[in-house]
Design goal:
Layout lengths: L2 H109 L5 E3 L6 H9 L4 E2 L5 H10 L4 E6 L8 E2 L23 E4 L14 E4 L6 E5 L1
Parallel strand pairs: 3-7
Antiparallel strand pairs: 1-7, 2-7, 3-4, 3-5, 5-6
Keywords: Coiled coil, Lectin, Membrane, Transmembrane, Transmembrane helix
Protein name: CD209 antigen-like protein C
GO molecular function, one term: carbohydrate binding
Length: 232
C-alpha cells in the first residue's frame, strides 16, 4: 500500500469511529431520557395512588367514627327508653295501688252510711264557705279517719277549707259538729298560728316539703278566700 493510500484509510477509519460513538451517545441519552420519563410517570402515578389511598383511609375512618357515634347514640336512646319505660311501669303500679286504696276508702265510707261531698263554687272566707254548705243542707267536711282523709285529698286540686277551727277556744281544734279533734293530718310544722290563723285548710301543694295525702293540713287566716268542701 502506498503511503498516501494508508493515510487516506486512517482518516476514513477515524471518521467512521466518531460517527459510531456519537450514535451510541445519542442512543444512551435517549434511553436515559426515556427511563427518566418513565420513572417520573411512575412517581406521579405512585403519588396519585398513595394520595387516593390516604383519602380513602381518612374517609373510612370518618365513616367508622360516624358509625360508632350512631351506635352510641342509639345505645343511649335505648337506655333512656328503658329507663322511661321502667318509670312509667312504676307510675302505673303506684297509680293502680292508689286507685285500689281510694276504692277501699270509698267502700269503707259507704259502709258507714251514704255520704255526698261537693265543693263550693265561689272563693269565700271560712265562715262564708260554711254558710254556703249549710244553705244546701250540708256543712264543711269533717275528716276523722285516714281513709276519709285520703279520699278527700283525691277530690281536690287546690287549697280548700275543711270544717275544723279553733275560733271558739284558741289552741283547741273543734269540728263543725262541736267534737274535738282526735287525729290530725298536718303538714310538718303545722299548726303554727303564724298570723292569727284559726281556720284549717287542706293544702294541695304536692311540691311542698313533707306533703302527702296524710300530711296536708295547714292553719290559715279565716278571712282568706278559697273554696270549701261540703259534706251532706
Amino acid at each position: 500500500m502506498k503511503p498516501h493510500e494508508a493515510l487516506s484509510f486512517s482518516a476514513k477509519w477515524f471518521t467512521t469511529g466518531d460517527r459510531g460513538g456519537s450514535r451510541c451517545l445519542v442512543l444512551i441519552s435517549v434511553g436515559l431520557g426515556l427511563i427518566c420519563v418513565l420513572l417520573l410517570v411512575f412517581i406521579i402515578l405512585l403519588y396519585i395512588t398513595i394520595t387516593a389511598e390516604r383519602d380513602m383511609i381518612k374517609s373510612y375512618k370518618n365513616t367508622v367514627e360516624e358509625f360508632n357515634q350512631t351506635i352510641n347514640s342509639l345505645q343511649h336512646k335505648h337506655t333512656d327508653l328503658t329507663q322511661k319505660n321502667l318509670e312509667l311501669e312504676t307510675k302505673v303500679k303506684d297509680l293502680t295501688a292508689e286507685k285500689n286504696q281510694l276504692q277501699r276508702d270509698f267502700d269503707s265510707l259507704n259502709k258507714k252510711g251514704p255520704v255526698c261531698f261537693f265543693m263550693s263554687t265561689e272563693l269565700k272566707s271560712w265562715s262564708d264557705s260554711r254558710q254556703y254548705c249549710r244553705d244546701r243542707g250540708a256543712d264543711l267536711v269533717i275528716i276523722n279517719t285516714e281513709e276519709k282523709q285520703r279520699f278527700i285529698s283525691s277530690l281536690v286540686s287546690e287549697r280548700v277549707w275543711i270544717g275544723l277551727s279553733d275560733t271558739e277556744n284558741e289552741g283547741v281544734m273543734t269540728w263543725v259538729d262541736n267534737s274535738t279533734l282526735k287525729q290530725g293530718f298536718w303538714l310538718k310544722g303545722e299548726p303554727n298560728n303564724a298570723y292569727n290563723e284559726d281556720c284549717i285548710e287542706l293544702n294541695y301543694n304536692r311540691k311542698k316539703t313533707g306533703w302527702s295525702p296524710l300530711n296536708s293540713w295547714n292553719d290559715h287566716s279565716c278571712s282568706a278566700k278559697k273554696r270549701g268542701i261540703c259534706e251532706k
